[in-house]
TrEMBL record:
<dbReference type="GO" id="GO:0090222">
    <property type="term" value="P:centrosome-templated microtubule nucleation"/>
</dbReference>
<keyword id="KW-0597">Phosphoprotein</keyword>
<feature type="region of interest" description="Disordered">
    <location>
        <begin position="1"/>
        <end position="40"/>
    </location>
</feature>
<feature type="coiled-coil region">
    <location>
        <begin position="371"/>
        <end position="635"/>
    </location>
</feature>
<dbReference type="GO" id="GO:0034454">
    <property type="term" value="P:microtubule anchoring at centrosome"/>
</dbReference>
<keyword id="KW-0963">Cytoplasm</keyword>
<feature type="coiled-coil region">
    <location>
        <begin position="126"/>
        <end position="328"/>
    </location>
</feature>
<keyword id="KW-0175">Coiled coil</keyword>
<dbReference type="GO" id="GO:0097539">
    <property type="term" value="C:ciliary transition fiber"/>
</dbReference>
<dbReference type="GO" id="GO:0097431">
    <property type="term" value="C:mitotic spindle pole"/>
</dbReference>
<protein>
    <submittedName>
        <fullName>Ninein isoform X2</fullName>
    </submittedName>
</protein>
<dbReference type="GO" id="GO:0000242">
    <property type="term" value="C:pericentriolar material"/>
</dbReference>
<dbReference type="GO" id="GO:0005814">
    <property type="term" value="C:centriole"/>
</dbReference>
<feature type="coiled-coil region">
    <location>
        <begin position="748"/>
        <end position="1053"/>
    </location>
</feature>
<dbReference type="GO" id="GO:0051642">
    <property type="term" value="P:centrosome localization"/>
</dbReference>
<feature type="coiled-coil region">
    <location>
        <begin position="678"/>
        <end position="724"/>
    </location>
</feature>
<keyword id="KW-0206">Cytoskeleton</keyword>
């Protein structure tokens, strides 16, 4: 009975009914078990059942090599064969449905069931045997087909070898052509890049020349301004010297006039004494001549008083002219009392005689009083003459001192001018030294470039060596793989031959055993052949692809390395050129700024010194010596102006000539410097271009030679490898045939040992996998070591950069701390100025209180009956108070000027800080920031700056509008003052006490209001000094001073009229009473009219006071608004500064991060290339699994 008969019987056999006792029939649905594997539920056959075992094992297709399989697979096989109660069959055989079961146990159980009973179990056993036999027949047919495939594959392999040889030759020729094309392209690209670099260099040189011309023009304009200022100062000096000489001449004239006046006074005194003795010695005390003498004395007194008034008016006019003369911003510092105060305190005519107007005085007492008064007048005149002499002597001494001081100052100015010229020459020498240093630095940089070039060449040589080593390693790996493939192929061929011979010899004797062995051996052969075919075909194709890929990669690497080196060299060259240009620009700008700063500082110092000296000298001279010389001064002022203009024109011409000469010298030096720099630059550029071209040509030639030699060596190596591999394959084939015969005898003797060998093979494979893992670890460690070296280098570079950045950061922090210190000092100074303003306001309040007290005292004095006794003392007090108020006003104006100077200094500091921030932004912009984040930051900064500028412009416009409103208010106040002038002129005609008291009140109120207006305008000056209305505020100050002078004149006129009115209101003598009785009624009528007029004037004065009060309130409100606006502007400036600082820091940080990012990207790119190459090497080094 053969296999086919057995299969046919099994197929035609009918299925018996399912057993009822052994396996109860239940239609169960198949379910998948999820429980873990458990071997405890497996049935163990008895020894009686195991006696009739078959040599084969069922379900070998489901075996995974361990002798066990899942229950589900067996159930699926039975279901496919038509057995429905498969789960019941397994349960009846005492097998667990969960996990795996043993195939050997299942075969034994089925055999036992076949021997014992005939039921569904038999059918299951038959179905399983049928499937196993079918599977074995298919495997035999498959093995026969695979043998024929192996023969055809061997023929294909030989054909592929020939094709490989032809393809390799073609590939080498294509590589040579590609290399030639690439070299030509590189040469063309290099030429184009050189042309582009040259054009860029020419453009940069043109830009530098344009910038130098612009800077030269700016310096010339600044030098022109400085020369004009110096000429103006020299003119001013010459004018002051001439003014001193004129004043000395006027002093001599005044001394002569004083001596003549003293002689006249002595003559008058002697004549008066004689006249008194002649006329009043024999007269009775009650005679009419005595009354006439009293009238003459009164007339003399009135004449003296008129002279004093005229002198005081003239003094006031001179003071107003002095203020106009110093209208260019100079502030007077009155340290002494005015001449009017001295005359008022010393003049005897201002004192009233208390006893002249009384009715009860007797004639004898009146004559004695007249004699006493004459004696007092003599003594006072003598004292005044002595005082005048002393004053003249002191003034002459002071004039001598002033002349000496001016001579010394003139000599100092000469010395300073000489020193200034010496400093300029020294600065030019220093500039030449700096240029020489810069040339040395450029030479050092060129040397550094040469060193870097040599270093790059060395790195390139090392990289080529590394590539050669890698190529050699890869070729060795290919050889090994080819050898292994050939050995495998020879082994398989030998095995096939041996198997054929053994089959022919052992068919007759061992038919059954040979069938089983054939089946097992055919399965193994099929597996091995499939593996071998797959390995051989895959390895051949992989080797072809690898060879092609390696050659293409090598070509690409060489091409990319050459391109990278070229790009790196070009970038380094361009960066060095840019750095040099930027350094030259920065050095030129720094030198220009230093020269401009030094010149401006010297000019400011000299101007301040000259202004102080001239102000002090002119102030002292004009205050003390222009009292009695008004008429002559008006004539001489015109002459002085003409002389001043002539001398100024001469000095301007002289200064312009000197400055033109200096400017030409500086321009010639600058042009020579530029020529030298251009020559040096062109020579260096040509040298660099020549060196770079020669270096590239040398590298190209070297690379060509290396590539040709490598190509020839690779061809020779490949041919030698092919011959060696053929010999080795033949030898291995023979050895494999011998080994297969020995193995076949061993397998036939011991089939049971296959499992052990398979396990050993698994262990060996695991060991090989471990070895490969170790090799991979070693390669990874090498890669890590390479990465660590690269990272160390990058870390060292980063550390150096961080140290450099830290140094820059420390310097920036120091600069920021200095700026903060300056800002704190400025804030402290502004706080001190505010405190001083507060003190001044308190003093002004005290002065206002004093004025009110004086007003009350005047009212009390005017109510008293004895008005004439204390009137002179009160008037002196009032004059002293007015003078004190004037001094305080001048001090307030001085403080305002100081505040203006401090605020101007603060604004200059702010502008300097803004300029520094602008310079930093320009430097950052020139550095070439290209990231989108930087652009966004710049746009935000520009937007913020524009917003701040718009706000400042709006605030300035608003301030201008407010200034215009203040102007309107001042115009209203001027109109009111004109109305007051009109009222004062009308009041001059009235000569009553009530009129004088009201006028005094009005004048005091007006003085207080003017004082408050001056304070308000002082605050306006503080608020408006940053805006365009500063000049308008100064004009308003001058107008207020003119108004003050007018009020002083009006007050003096009113005092004169009031004194004259008092003299007229004295009660008449009894001798004159009869002559004035017929006028009493007319005087009563006139008195009524005057009282009506006084009431009307009082009402008008009240209205004027109300209007002035309203104007003051408006001014206070506007001053408060301006203060608030100033506070807001200060905050806005602080915010803008902070923004500028933050933006500068952000831009620096962005630059640093960009640089780091670029460096990291380059390093990552290089590391990725290295890793990819190492991965390829590792992949190539992984050998194929060995055959067992």
């Amino acid at each position: 009975m053969n296999v086919q008969e057995f299969v046919s019987r099994v197929v035609t056999h009918n299925k018996p009914p399912t057993p009822s006792a052994s396996t109860p029939y239940r239609q169960l649905k198949r379910h998948h078990s999820t429980q873990p594997f458990d071997e405890g539920g497996r049935r163990i056959a008895t020894p009686s059942a195991l006696s009739s075992t078959i040599g084969t094992r069922l379900f070998s297709t489901l075996d995974d090599g361990s002798g066990f399989t899942l229950v589900e697979y067996i159930l699926d096989a039975w279901v496919e064969e038509g057995i429905e109660n498969s789960t019941e069959i397994l349960q009846a055989l005492n097998f667990n449905l969960d996990g795996k079961l043993s195939l050997s146990d299942l075969t034994m159980a089925l055999e036992n069931e076949l021997l014992i009973t005939k039921n569904g179990i038999h059918q299951a056993a038959l179905a399983s045997f049928k499937a196993e036999i079918r599977h074995l027949l298919e495997r035999v047919d498959r093995e026969l087909r695979e043998k024929e495939k192996i023969r055809s594959d061997l023929e294909k392999v030989e054909k592929q070898k020939t094709q490989l040889a032809t393809e390799v030759d073609e590939h080498h020729s294509a590589i040579e052509q590609m290399n030639n094309l690439n070299l030509r392209k590189l040469e063309q690209e290099h030429k184009e890049k050189l042309a582009a670099v040259r054009s860029e260099l020419m453009k940069e040189m043109d830009q530098i020349q344009q910038q130098a011309s612009v800077q030269r023009e700016e310096l010339e304009a600044e030098m022109q301004k400085i020369r004009e200022d110096e000429s103006f100062l020299r003119d001013h000096l010459s004018i002051s010297v001439k003014e001193n000489r004129r004043l000395e001449m006027e002093l001599l004239d005044s001394t002569e006039k004083l001596e003549e006046a003293q002689n006249q006074i002595t003559k008058l005194q002697t004549s008066l004494d004689n006249i008194i003795k002649e006329r009043f010695g024999d007269l009775d005390p009650g005679s009419a001549d005595l009354f006439l003498q009293e009238e003459r004395i009164k007339q003399l007194r009135s004449s003296y008083e008129a002279q004093c008034r005229e002198l005081q008016d003239r003094i006031d006019e001179l003071q107003s002219e002095l203020q106009e003369f110093h209208g260019l911003g100079r502030v007077l510092q009155p340290c002494h009392k005015t001449l009017s105060e001295e005359l008022e305190s010393k003049s005897p005519g201002m004192e009233s005689d208390p006893g002249i107007g009384s009715d009860e005085v007797q004639p004898f007492s009146m004559s004695l009083e007249a004699e006493m008064m004459l004696e007092q007048l003599k003594e006072q005149h003598l004292q005044e003459m002595e005082d005048l002499r002393n004053q003249l002597e002191t003034k002459i001494n002071e004039f001598d001192k002033m002349v000496e001081k001016q001579k010394a100052s003139h000599e100092d100015q000469k010395v300073t001018i000489v020193l200034h010229h010496q400093q300029e020459a020294q600065a030019l020498r220093e500039e030449m030294a700096t240029l020489q240093i810069q040339t040395q630095e450029l030479q050092n940089r060129l040397q550094q470039v040469d060193v870097e070039r040599t270093r790059l060449e060395q790195t390139q040589v090392e990289e080529t060596k590394k590539l050669q080593n890698l190529q050699e390693k890869e070729v060795e790996t290919f050889r090994q793989q080819l050898q292994e493939a050939q050995t495998c192929r020879e082994d398989l061929e030998e095995q096939l031959k041996n198997l054929r011979g053994q089959q022919v010899e052992n068919d007759e004797n061992f038919s059954r055993e040979m069938e089983e062995l054939k089946k097992q051996h055919a399965v193994q052969i099929r597996r091995l052949e499939e593996e071998h075919v797959e390995l051989s075909e895959g390895q051949l194709e992989e080797e072809k692809q690898k060879l092609q890929e390696e050659r293409s990669e090598l070509e690409k690497r060489l091409f990319e390395s050459s391109e990278k080196e070229k790009e790196l060299l070009q970038q380094s060259h361009e960066e060095e050129l840019k750095v040099r240009l930027e350094e030259v620009k920065e050095s030129m700008e720094a030198e220009r700024e230093e020269v401009v700063r030094s010149l401006t500082e010297q000019w400011k110092r000299e101007r301040a010194q000259l202004d102080e000296q001239n102000n002090d000298a002119l102030q002292v001279l004009l205050e003390e010596e222009m009292m009695r010389l008004v008429k002559e001064q008006e004539e001489k002022e015109g002459r002085l102006r003409e002389i001043w203009e002539q001398e100024r024109a001469q000095l301007q011409e002289h200064q312009e000539k000197a400055l033109l000469h200096e400017r030409n010298q500086v321009q010639e030096q600058f042009e020579q410097r530029e020529r030298q720099l251009k020559k040096e630059w062109e020579s260096e550029r040509l040298q660099l271009v020549e060196d770079y071209e020669g270096m590239l040509q040398e590298r190209l030639s070297e690379e060509k030679e290396k590539f040709d030699g490598e190509k020839e060596e690779e061809e020779k190596r490949f041919e030698a490898l092919m011959g060696e591999e053929k010999v080795q394959l033949e030898e291995r084939h023979r050895e494999a045939v011998k080994e297969l015969t020995a193995k076949h005898t061993q397998e036939r003797d011991a089939l049971s040992g296959m499992l052990d060998k398979l396990r050993e093979d698994i262990v060996q494979e695991r060991s090989e996998t471990g070895r490969l893992a170790e090799e991979n670890l070693a390669l990874r460690q090498k890669i890590a070591a390479l990465k660590e070296e690269d990272l160390k280098e990058s870390q060292e570079e980063l550390i150096q950069k961080l140290e450099f950045l830290k140094k820059g950061k420390v310097a920036a922090q120091r600069a920021a701390e200095n700026f903060k210190k300056q800002i704190t000092e400025l804030r402290l100074q502004s706080q001190q100025l505010e405190d001083q303003n507060g003190l001044l306001t308190e003093r002004n309040a005290q002065n206002i209180a004093d004025i009110e007290n004086l007003r009350q005292q005047l009212e009390e004095v005017m109510k008293d009956d004895e008005r004439t006794e204390g009137f002179s003392a009160e008037r002196n007090k009032l004059a002293a108070c007015v003078s004190g108020l004037e001094t305080e006003l001048t001090k307030a104006l001085e403080d305002a000027a100081q505040l203006e100077e401090r605020n101007s200094q603060l604004s200059e500091l702010l502008s300097d800080l803004k300029e520094k921030n602008h310079v930093l932004e320009v430097a950052l912009h020139s550095g070439g920031l290209q990231n989108q984040s930087k652009k966004l930051l710049r746009e935000e900064v520009s937007r913020l700056v524009e917003q701040e500028q718009l706000l400042l412009r709006e605030e300035n416009e608003r301030l201008q509008a407010e200034v215009q409103e203040v102007k309107g208010d001042l115009l209203q106040s001027r109109e009111q003052i004109r109305q007051l002038d009109a009222t004062i002129l009308s009041l001059k005609q009235n000569k009553q006490q009530t009129q004088s008291s009201v006028l005094l009140k009005a004048l005091e109120q007006e003085n207080a209001s003017l004082k408050q207006e001056l304070e308000a305008q002082k605050e306006l000056n503080k608020s408006c000094e940053a805006g365009p209305g500063h000049a308008e505020v100064e004009s308003l100050q001058q107008e207020n001073e003119a108004l003050k002078a007018q009020m002083a004149r009006l007050s003096s006129h009113l005092m004169e009229n009031f004194q004259a009115h008092l003299v007229g209101l004295l009660p008449p003598s009894p001798h004159r009473m009869p002559r004035g009785q017929h006028r009493a009624e007319d005087q009563d009528n006139v008195q009524d009219d005057r009282e009506r007029k006084m009431k009307i004037m009082e009402e008008r004065m009240k209205e004027i006071e109300l209007s002035l009060h309203n104007v003051k309130l408006l001014l206070k409100e506007k001053v408060a608004q301006l203060k608030d606006q100033l506070h807001k502007n200060g905050k806005a400036d602080v915010l803008i500064k902070d923004l500028y600082m933050e933006n500068a820091q952000l831009l620096r940080a962005l630059e640093v991060t960009d640089k780091r990012q670029k460096i990291a990207e380059k390093k990552n790119y290089l590391l990725e290339e290295k890793i990819s190459s190492l991965n390829r090497i590792v992949r190539d080094l992984n050998p194929s699994l060995p055959y067992y």
